[in-house]
Amino acid sequence: MKVRSSVFASFILIFEVFGIALFLRGFFPVPVKSSLSSKSKLSDLPAEPLSGSSPNSSRLPQPLFKRVVIMLVDALREDFVFGPSGRMYMPYTRHVVERGSSHSFVAKARPPTVTMPRIKALTTGSIPGFIDVVMNLNSPALLEDNLIWQAKTAGKRIVFYGDDTWVRLFPKHFMEYDGTTSFFVSDYTEVDNNVTRHLDSTLKRDDWDILILHYLGLDHIGHISGPHSSLIQPKLLEMDDILKKIHSALILKEAEGSLPYLLVLCGDHGMSETGSHGGSSEPEVNTPLVLISPAFKRKGKLSSPGVVEQVDLTPTLALGLGLPISQNSVGHVIPGVLEETSLRDQLRFLHLNGHQLSCLLKDSIPNYEKEAGFEQFRVAEKAHGSWMKLYMEGNTSEVLTNMGKKVLKQYLEALAAMSSALGKQLGKYDMYSMIAGMVFVFQLLLLLLLAMPEALSGAAAVDLPVLSALLSLPFYLMCLLLASVHVLVCTSAESSCYLCSLSWGLVFAAVAFSSTMFCILVSMATRRLFPGLKIHGKVSFSGSEWSLSELDVLLLAGTIGHTLSLAASSFVEEEHQTWYFLLNTLCLAVFQDVCRKYFREKNGSGEEEEHILPSKDCRPSAHPKAEICSEKWLALATPPFTLACCRLLRSLNQTGVQWAHLPDVGHWLNSSEHKMVLSLLAAFCLVLIYLLVQRRCSWVSKVALALGLLGVYSYRAAVDNVLFPWQHSGHTMSKGTVEARFVYVFVLGILFTGTKDLLRSQIITADAKLKSRGLWEIYSGLVLLVSLLFRAHNLPVLCCCLLIQTLMAQFIWKKLHYDAAQTTIMHYWFGQAFFYFQGNSNNIATVDISVGFIGLESYVEAPAIFLTALNTYAGPLLWACHLVCYLSSERDRSPVAVGHGCYCLALLRSVPAAAYIVLVTVLRYHLFIWSVFSPKLLYESMHLLLTAGVCLFFNTMEQSHSSSKS
């Protein structure tokens, strides 16, 4: 069955979407949820256990606190309070922690350490999934049982000021609120002043019960300049003064005989060494939790803070306010908060918490009876009933007290065990859907690889043996096997699977399609491996012979080996090591090819055999031997120079997961005492960038590029990253909005000039030189934009990128006559390595969101997302664009043999940048969710499929255009 390449590509892309959707349907974790649709009510609470008689009353102990103030400081790391610098950063808070009536803890947050999932964890007590990272951009209303809803239902009056994420999560829950935009990270002053300006009037009033304050300035400073910035201490001192003001106001308003207040200081997440967050490093997950109340004992000496889970705050606040615990809460009450209450009340609080956890355990774990915590709770509940019987009889002996303390200990152990068991159930994966989606995608990938030589041939058609596959015996055997597997999984699965809920008609269609794909793959693989084999009396398509050089083997084995390595989480965490190794090996292999060309391959007369292909711009040189000699030594120097550049860039930014906290050259350059060195380095890099980029541009673009790069340095000087010679290091820092917009004007001008030349070459005149110049001008505009987005210490990365591209294009790819396949894969390898040279990793915490607001005075979603994505994937994008420009400028060279073994893989990797960015952005950030299969491995497969389909479209269009011309 002959199918056109365009139809075949459409087929692959359409069904790829189904495979991806099926995998993601099973991959995104379903959070631990209660089976009850309604929310918890006071009337549903269990009675106090009482053995030997009728159940006791279901009364609740008296609430512990009358009024609660929650001061949440975004990105507050625990060492900012409890560390060696705590007395300098937050002196009053540190005094209260050491000497006041307080309890202090290190609260561990679960990844993803992003604001919206952390707010959900603090209010529901549940563990959000990674899908909430995406939902963080536009938070929908929170419908599940939560502390805010319970408080509002109980008649508590809630006032909120701060991050507007709370307003979106809890609409119509607050008596009074004022939300501030959380995404405009360039603002770290007004965003907090908008919260503090309400404090004086609110603290004087008595018409509220819960006050929530969410300060964002510290988080924004971290994104802008990191945790060691000079801006950190003033901001923490500001937060400390606010805490002192709140504490003093609560002390003055405390009435004799009434319930005490509770002041909570906490952070939603921490801050990495680069100032970002989202991952699972210690600085990101460790946050301070300080509970201040006259109900607690006053401390006499410094005590090291204990360690709790962040979700433990939810049941603690619920019981402290006399509210039911949220149904989906996996935390357990913090024991120190209850220590001043009576023993009966303490046991009752723990019993209520244990009952809620045991109910959630029943809904979440099929064999919940086998859980040690569940059994411990039942034993403690019985012992509690025996203690209650003696207590109700009026027994006041010391034996009763000791018995109560033993029951208390049993409860605490049971609660910790049940909470731990629930915490391990981060989500329920639909493994059946995941495996089916993986198999489906890999079938499409193999089909694409086997059909690519035919699809790219002159006929631009693929011969798919569909009819023979449908009439073969293996097809029916595969249908029976897959149907049996489906029945077996659906009848024995302990949890529901998505595929099992589909109708049998759809399931049979999927089984038949997968079986057909399998038979087609076997048939195509057979005729590819055995070209002379006859199938049903006809000679199969043989194609052309594949001949692989040593470099081809390296490129093919390296790319496939990297893809397979992503099935292990360790290789994903430290993926940069794989690319560094492959890049070094590639440089050595290229150096070997250069030596072979210039020292071993001689013609009969002893002269080097040059295979310079004719082109329109080829002109005879007056000194051919001198030029050949200089080219030879420059070609020999290029691979070692590339190796040296890569080694220096590795030291510039630490990346990965295990050693990302170690100091690097970037930290050294960004320190205040080395600002002059950074200034000189940035100026030198910008000059070199201009010299490397302007060569292929028109004079208008050259002038615009020079002014734009001057604007880049001015912007960095405005934000106090670098210095002009006449500036002092202590000058006032600004946002650099005017300077950044000045650069944007020249970027748009260069892009407009390049686009105009490109359109003229396509519409008005078929001028290949004009087309090439237009592409290079667009590329130079992109370089100017990236130089603005890159931090000052990362400009050497951009400079080395351009320098390596220039040297490799001039002395390696052209002189050694590497074909499009080899050149494409090399570009892909370099692009991936430069992604990590920038300091990026597969951890969401390394995404620098501050660049999304360069030149903006307020939060605008579209440009912020575009600039952040462009900065993150600048390395792969620049190399992909350079590939397009280079291949376009070399189009007059001799055509590459289609049957080359690496050509299939090369076109798979020749990806339009937009498609690449979308795929990687969506799927790269799931580093810390691992089941049987690696999502990173799926991402590589989808990357192959999508890029191959796009390339097939372009190939078909090019062939059609050539045919119409001839």
Description:
With 966 residues, this protein is α/β, with parallel strands linked by helices. The chain folds into 4 domains: 2-28 and 430-529, no CATH class; 72-304 and 321-328, Alkaline Phosphatase, subunit A (3-Layer(aba) Sandwich), CATH 3.40.720.10; 330-426, no CATH class; 550-599 and 629-893, no CATH class. It is 57% helix and 6% strand. The protein contains 37 helices and 12 strands. The strands form 3 sheets. It has an 8-stranded mixed β-sheet with strand order 5-4-6-2-7-8-3-9, with helices on both faces. α15 packs antiparallel against α16 (372-392) and α35 (903-909) crosses α37. The longest helix is centred in the last third of the chain and has 31 residues, at 935-965. The chain is globular. The two termini are 28 Å apart. The model is unreliable at 534-546, 603-621 and 892-938 (pLDDT under 50). Belongs to the PIGG/PIGN/PIGO family. PIGG subfamily. Residues 40-59 are annotated as: Disordered.
